[in-house]
Amino acid sequence: MTDNIKLNAILGNGIIYLLDKNDHQKIITNLSKQIKDYIIENDEMIQERVKKGSYSFIPSFVDNKIAYKIASGLSDFFKEVEENPEHEIRDLITRKIYEFSNDLKEDPKWNDEFKTIKNDLLKNDKLVEYSTDIWLSIKKTLTEELQNNDSTLKNYLSKNLNEFSQNLKTDENLQNKIDHWVRVTAYKYILKNTHQAGNLISSTVGNWQGKELSQKLELEVGKDLQFIRVNGTLVGGLVGLIIYTISHFFI
Fold first, then answer.
1. Residue 19 to residues 12, 89, 98: CA-CA distances in angstroms?
2. Are 10 and 110 in contact (CB under 8 A)?
3. Where are the alpha helices (DSSP H) in the chain?
4. Is the dihedral of CA 108, 111, 115, 117 positive or negative?
């Protein structure tokens, strides 16, 4: 599946995307600041380097003066790069990165390099190791988050469940959508499994005892069942009375 994936082209296009958005300027600014600060904080090291490379007959104050000039010159240069977004060194760095990105995309040697790296990373034993480490890390994180009452994950889940519960109670549109989905899904499933649905209903109703059947009918029919019971009793009694009268007086 990964044979046709050219990582060098993906990486090259990614770098060009960052260059086109000018995001690399932030890196140049930050790097210039760090180099400037490092030079200022390590001026004694520069003095030692100058003395070490100097001739023995040159006085120390001359070496110190040279070291100071070097340190101040370098720090001033990187300060200019840091503060001037139009500095010429920025354009030079940008051009060099563009050249490297295009070379990364088009030069076959980079394709071969990344293909070798890709194949090494995707070996079966490596994949098993990666997936195991990832799963253990996720499992540990989830366990810790769920055990902590104030965890971000637990608060997030609680908030969303409460919102969903409230929406189910108050959002009529959501209720209708869910009801419609349930009806359509159940209808499709029953159509595909008509025979099994019929057997399920028959076996379920067949296993009901008389008392259980009466309770379920009463639950579903409600007050109408009481009306049916009363009517049945009255009709049955009336029919019995008529039969008794006929048999007693006319037969």
1. 11, 15, 8
2. no
3. 7-20, 24-41, 43-53, 60-83, 88-106, 108-121, 124-147, 152-170, 172-192, 194-206, 210-221, 223-249
4. positive
Tell me the average pLDDT across 6-17. 84
List, for residues 48-59, the tens digit of each pLDDT value: 777 777 667 677
Q: Report, as an integer, the average pLDDT of 176-204.
A: 84
* Residue partners of 114: CB distance under 8 A and separation at least 6: 6, 7, 8, 11
What is the residue type of 225? L
Contact 63, 50 (CB under 8 A): yes
Contacts 24+ apart (CB under 8 A), 103-111: 104/8, 104/11, 104/12, 104/15, 105/8, 105/9, 105/12, 105/13, 110/8, 111/6, 111/8, 111/9
Q: Which residues contact 200 (CB under 8 A, 6 or more apart)?
A: none
- Tokens representing 53 are 């490379």
Q: How far is the CA of 205 from the CAs of 31, 191, 200, in angstroms?
A: 78, 20, 9
φ, ψ for residue 55, nearest 5 deg: -80, 155
- The confidence band for 68, taking pLDDT boundaries of 50, 70 and 90, is confident
pLDDT for the residue 106:
85
Residue 81, class by beta-carbon neighbours within 10 Å (0-12 exposed, 13-18 middle, 19+ buried)?
buried
Average pLDDT, the chain: 80
Q: What is the pLDDT of residues 204-218, one digit of tens each?
A: 777 777 677 667 666
